[in-house]
Specification:
- With 312 residues, the protein is of the alpha/beta class.
- 25% of the residues lie in helices and 20% in strands.
- It has 8 helices and 16 strands.
- Helix 3 (97-109) packs across helix 5 and helix 4 packs parallel to helix 6 (174-184).
- The radius of gyration is 20 Å and the shape is globular.
């Protein structure tokens, strides 16, 4: 957990739950998994959460509740955007509902912050919110935490959705988007968003971003409020075709949905400046060659500008 973050779309990270499992191809080079199995492998929040394999550390599927960190956001006085469970998945199958209830209770009490929850387990998340007494269960935790902190069991609790909690689904290709998006759109959230990173192929979202009013060209109910797109970074990063990112930007603009371009990642467009001797990628029908610049040099300009849109 950190009161600051280098992730471009957030200000801080908070890890009340750590641990995960490999779900789909986008998990292959997960930075949190590698970190948990190397530099942090002896940290109490990570011990035993990975096992060694020929490809390096791999999540075991075990998760851990870090009670000592649970109330950290309540101690941060400056309002900030907080990425929840950056080193795990809050809705992982091995995470008990009671842990999630406590996390949501803290978010309810920390109304000055905006919390960004991101999951690959959209189906489980939808099931969690569909529980008939979910609001009451979270409300009980709100009272218990407030009693522990202030001696008063009474605390403001407005119910779901919390106005300061954004809930998103992560997907890397069309198949995973098609599997996860239908569950996401049914979740009660102030903001629903997609993180398409690492983007591994062209993805079509368009009409599922926002619903048209039947018989007209006008926009009606908004399904998704924000789309984040980014390429993969790290030593084994897979290249992302520039047209994949451009297409998603155009789909978002057409639907009036905020678009955030996080990064090119390890690979960037060849035309932005050649580095002699650098590796080139032309696979996967990459008719526009990419060059391995490294994340820092590749930057995050898409067609000459940064895209930093966020939901209002």
């Amino acid at each position: 957990m950190s009161a600051t973050s280098k992730i471009e779309w957030t200000d801080a990270t908070w890890n009340p739950v750590t641990g995960c499992s490999v779900q789909s191809p986008g998990c292959k080079n997960c930075y949190a998994m590698k970190l948990a199995g190397t530099r942090l492998r002896h940290h109490p929040s990570r011990v035993g959460l990975t096992q060694e394999s020929a490809a390096g550390p791999v999540w075991t599927g075990e998760t851990r509740f870090n009670a000592a960190w649970l109330e950290q956001p309540l101690q941060w006085t400056r309002a900030r955007m907080i990425f929840v469970c950056a080193h795990g998945d809050l809705f992982h199958p091995s995470v008990p509902d009671e842990w999630i209830d406590q996390v949501f209770a803290v978010m309810a009490l920390a109304g000055r912050h905006t919390f960004q929850v991101l999951t690959k387990q959209a189906k489980r998340a939808a099931k969690y919110f569909a529980h008939p007494v979910r609001e009451a269960l979270i409300g009980q935790q709100v009272g218990q935490i407030n009693l522990r902190r202030t001696g008063n069991p009474v605390a403001a609790w407005s119910g779901l959705p919390l106005p300061n909690v954004w809930i998103g689904a992560s997907a890397e290709d069309q198949r995973r988007l098609d599997e996860r998006l239908p569950h996401l759109v049914g979740i009660p959230a102030a903001v629903r968003y997609l993180s398409l990173e690492p983007l591994l192929e062209a993805v079509k979202v368009d009409h599922r971003l926002i619903a048209p009013i039947e018989g007209t060209s006008q926009h009606g109910q908004r399904f998704i409020d924000w789309v984040i797109v980014g390429g993969e970074s790290g030593r084994c990063a897979r290249p992302m075709h520039p047209d994949w990112a451009r297409s998603l930007r155009d789909q978002c603009q057409a639907a009036g949905v905020a678009f955030f371009y996080k990064q090119w990642g390890e690979w960037g467009p060849y035309g932005r400046g050649r580095i002699d001797g650098a590796q080139l990628a032309t696979s996967n029908s990459l008719d526009e060659p990419l060059q391995r610049f490294g994340k820092k040099l590749s930057g995050r300009l898409l067609d000459g500008r940064e895209w930093n849109e966020v939901p209002q």
